[in-house]
Specification:
Blueprint: E1 5-6, E2 12-13, E3 18-23, E4 39-45, H1 54-63, E5 68-69, E6 72-77, H2 83-102, H3 116-136
Helix pairs in contact: 1-2
């Protein structure tokens, strides 16, 4: 199943750039738990790949800095009992991480002020609330 990983419509990571590693998954299992290598590690050399344009690569390396080891992004999957499903989960996880890392930054928020009516309504509500609480107090006169 060494297939390409589809990140978006325009970006597909070729299978030649991916490194798969398999090992025994921890946790409970059945009779085949000691013989089945169902845990999957999928690695992609993000910093060394020529797949992304320089600007996108720099953005991804900056955003994923803590997750990268020598420029290599590694994801693991061991939640399923079958290796095939773990491979699919790891590929989907890698695609999601890369898509999030190369996404355009959100637009800057334009600062706005509340309208005069909104300010007046807020103050009127506060006065009404304080009056309600004042009326609950026992008069100590």
């Amino acid at each position: 199943m060494a297939d390409d990983v589809q990140v978006s419509e325009r970006l597909t990571i070729p299978a030649a750039e991916l490194a798969w590693r398999f090992s025994r998954s921890s946790g409970p299992g059945g009779q085949g738990v000691n013989t089945t290598d169902s845990r999957v590690e999928l690695s992609w050399d993000l910093a060394g790949s020529e797949l992304l344009p320089a600007a996108l690569r720099e953005r991804a390396v900056e955003r994923l800095g803590a997750r990268l080891v020598n420029g290599v992004l590694t994801v693991t999957a061991s939640e399923h009992r079958s290796q095939l499903r773990n491979r699919e989960a790891a590929a989907a996880r890698l695609a999601g991480i890369v898509a999030g890392a190369i996404a355009a930054p959100p637009r800057a928020r334009r600062a706005t002020r509340p309208s005069r009516g909104a300010v007046e309504r807020r103050i009127a509500d506060k006065k009404r609330r304080s009056q309600t609480k004042r009326n609950r107090r026992a008069d100590s006169d």
